[in-house]
Amino acid sequence: MTPVGMLLSFGLLSVVMKSLPVGTAYTVRTAIGAMGTFLVGVVILSGALTPTRFLAAILIIFGLVLMKIFISDLVRKRHK
After folding, report:
1. Nearest by Cα to 28 from 45, 46, 16, 38
2. Which residues of 24-56 are buried (b: 16+ CB within 10 A; e: fewer)?
3. What pTM, to 2 d.p., does this model score?
4. Radius of gyration of the chain from Cα atoms?
């Protein structure tokens, strides 16, 4: 199952890179993977949800929101 997920991940990354800068696409992909790993660890594997870990997860989400805001601005500038 892991090889299939990896191939799917790289395939989708290559599709996304046609419309987004490489750095942005890879950052978003990495953040989604980090959040998924964090959630599996806490929810399924009963990992500790300390205030520091929770804050780190919130900061990752906040970073993705900022990326979305700036990407939207960049795309608008390209289409003018």
Report:
1. 16
2. bbeebbeeeeeeeebeeeeeeeeeeeeeeeeee
3. 0.69
4. 15
